[in-house]
Design goal:
By secondary structure, this protein is of the alpha+beta class. Helix 5 (about 185-195) crosses helix 6 (about 195-210). The radius of gyration is 24 Å and the shape is elongated. The protein is built from 6 helices and 14 strands. It folds into 2 domains: about 5-125, no CATH class; about 150-230, Orthogonal Bundle (Arc Repressor Mutant, subunit A), CATH 1.10.10. The strands form 5 sheets. A 4-stranded antiparallel β-sheet has the order 3-4-9-6. Strands 5-8-7 form a 3-stranded antiparallel β-sheet, with no helix packed on it.
Amino acid sequence: MLSTEIIDDKVTIHTFGSSFITINYDIHDLISKEGRVWTFSLNSTTDYSLLMPPNSIIVGMNALPSNMDLVNEQTKLELNTGLSEINYIFGTTTPPTTTPEQPIIDISTLSLIGVAITAVIAGVIIMIKRKQTKPSPILQTEVISDSKVNTDSLDTQTIFNMRPEMREDDKEIVKFISENGGQVLESDLRKKFLQPRTTMWRAVKRLERQGVIEISKKDLQNLVKLKKELEKEE
């Protein structure tokens, strides 16, 4: 185990003289999927290598790699510093049937040709934007009792009035949750506000302590929901 420091959205790893380290990452942070197309995206501050999954076929790249090779029938890319976006799909490859008169083309040559063609047309590829659920109208019901507010879905202005000390960035999170039917996945919050996992988790826990939201598990992910009943602060 190596010593690490996390400050905002940056992680500093003390290698203690190691010349090679392996980093495990959360797939929801670096990988996304739209239809059958997967996208790897990373803005790196240093050169690095990427080993593509078995049976993956690259269909788009935003920049050419510095080198490409095959390792146990997996494509290995050497990528440069900066933003890299790689689009790929999974498919079953079958060896071509050849006759003595037909030349056999090396698979690495085909891969290099495919990358070169992709680089030429990369400028005109339109990335599919993730569809966001349209906000549904929020109906505020009558305030009942002098100690609690009961609503089917709390109006954001009611929440802000009852929590005047709430931070502006936390208010934006509450608005986004309200606009999406009163509940969202924590991973969707990170994508919306471009925040690292630790920063967004602190914000979510801060809202939970204020009694504004509740956190539950859904398919191994954190589901963040606005509370339907908000207690007044003493």
